[in-house]
Amino acid sequence: MEIIISQTAEESSVLAARVIARQVREKPDSVLGLATGSTPIRMYQELIRMHQEEGLDFSRVTTFNLDEYVGLPRTHDQSYYYFMQEQLFKYLNIPAANIHLPDGMAADIPAHCAEYEAQIQAAGGIDIQVLGIGSDGHIAFNEPTSSLSSRTRIKTLTEQTIEDNSRFFDGDETQVPRHCITMGIGTIMEARMNLLLAFGEGKAEAVVQTVEGPISSMIPASILQHHQSAKVFIDESAATKLKLKEYYKWVYAGKPEWQKDQ
Ligand code: F6R
Fold first, then answer.
1. What's the whole-number mean pLDDT along residues 251-259?
2. What are 155's strand-pairing partners?
3. Which of 3, 17, 30, 181 might form a disulfide with 102, Cβ 3.0–4.6 angstroms?
4. Which residue among the candidates 67, 103, 117, 236 is catalytic per the annotation?
């Protein structure tokens, strides 16, 4: 794991966007795995800026999102489909046919999940997967005790996640769907690179458990210790509990410039 600590979420987001931009420049038909939530929004804004001002071309890119709420139509303003349109897709030139999210209204959810996995395979696998992290250590909606080799499937959200996400539903927990479709941890681990972002002190405990704790399904993100290319972009407040914080900074500061967005 590579731990990249920046003073602010703003700086982290720009650095993370550069990694994605390099990937897309070097392989224009890259397959990107994307996340929703508050964390990646600033990074998406930077990608939009690069597209608009620097001509970063997404016309051959394919995307797969991590997850979607079950029972919300794509037109619902809290569906992840809607979120992605509003926060990213409507500003980029990714062909609509190349954009994939699980369908929370699928009639046959197991068949839909199997099809989603098959589509990822058919696209050649994911080059870079963007991840946020839940305060309970979840990645995508793989909540604590999820199988570390799970595939795309239906999951039940924990009470903690329902509480965390109620802020998007006018603070009303009863409005938050109980189920979601999520890529599995096994699916995420097959991405060629994982790029995890975490900002704010509310993520500090999940971050220290992920990076320096034991690998455990109680902290699903900790499996990233087993990934051969996982980058963790965090701000100072998310880094407060890391024992080796100064070491990570020292390592990153010593890297040659050309290596920083690789
Ligand atoms: C979203 C997702 C979730 C979020 C996580 C953090 O697609 O998969 O795992 O990344 O819940 O959410 P925020 O960024 O809102 O703190």
1. 90
2. 180
3. 181
4. 67
- Quick check: is 136 catalytic? yes
Which of 12, 13, 39, when mutated, tests ligand 1's pocket best, judged by the most ligand atoms within 8 Å of its CB? 39
Whole-prediction pTM: 0.96
**Residue with the nearest Cα to atom 10 of ligand 1?**
132
pLDDT tens digits for 180-230? 999 999 999 999 999 999 999 999 999 999 999 999 999 999 999 999 999
**CATH fold for domain 2-237:** Rossmann fold (3.40.50)
- Residue 108 makes CB contacts below 8 A (sequence gap 6+) with none
Residue appearing with tokens 């397959």? 31
Vertex 35 angle, CA 31 and 40, to 5°? 110
